[in-house]
Design brief:
15 helices; globular
């Protein structure tokens, strides 16, 4: 299928009931409306289109409707995670993700693809691009930098996660703060002492949403101690 056929398929799956459910998680946005398709159905459709050409993926990303862009990101993420995907395809997915990050502008769109498209691509490469994303004024790019490090954490590599967390420890955007907390929590599961040292340095100024997520796996007395450091 091409982009047009995929959009038509999504339109056939839409319902007003599902569209209304999205208002619980996303503020109303006339420039990025919801069609009303369950994300499970979007993901199932993505599995049928993993070889969709980059140009057709970009066409999907250019659509205003949220589920259509979620479909593009899901295809990209699933394709990048697939072991048989070749280097050329991984290159084009990485290039497309970064070049059209203007269309990957919501937390869920980032989370669908950043780990495997960006982080997976950089596993054997220079990871300097993540520092550039972390310095961006566009908060979804900062979230991408953090979410991408999950690809490294899966391999037991902690340095990038902690270095980017240092950079973004006081980030003002709540959707970056949440990603920061998740990354730190996952890194702490691998090295509790390193996370403890990080939290002791940053607890006085760290946004509370990030701090709570980072220390979620500590016992209650330890969590209380960190939360009292203000």
């Amino acid at each position: 299928m091409d982009a047009a056929a995929l959009v038509a398929t999504l339109e056939g799956l839409a319902s007003e009931e599902e569209r209304e459910k999205y208002t619980r998680y996303f503020p109303p946005d006339p420039d990025a409306p919801f069609m009303g398709v369950r994300m499970g159905a979007v993901f199932d459709l993505a599995k049928t289109a993993l070889d969709l050409p980059a140009g057709e993926l970009e066409t999907l990303l250019e659509q205003p409707t949220h589920e259509v862009r979620a479909l593009a990101c899901s295809i990209m993420g699933k394709c990048a995670a697939r072991p048989k995907t070749d280097t050329e395809r991984r290159d084009e997915l990485y290039e497309l993700y970064l070049r059209r990050h203007d269309r990957i502008d919501q937390w869920d769109l980032v989370d669908l693809a950043a780990r495997d498209v960006v982080g997976g691509y950089l596993i054997e490469r220079d990871r300097a691009p993540l520092a550039g994303l972390a310095a961006s004024a566009f908060w979804p790019e900062r979230r991408t930098a953090l979410v991408a490090t999950f690809a490294f954490l899966r391999r037991g590599e902690l340095d990038d996660a902690f270095e980017l967390s240092e950079t973004l420890a006081d980030d003002p955007e709540p959707l970056v703060q949440k990603a920061l907390g998740w990354v730190l929590r996952a890194a702490g599961d691998l090295d509790r002492d390193r996370l403890t040292a990080f939290v002791e340095r940053h607890a006085p100024t760290m946004p509370r949403v990030a701090l709570r997520a980072a220390i979620e796996h500590y016992d209650r007395p330890e969590r209380s101690r960190f939360l009292a450091i203000r």
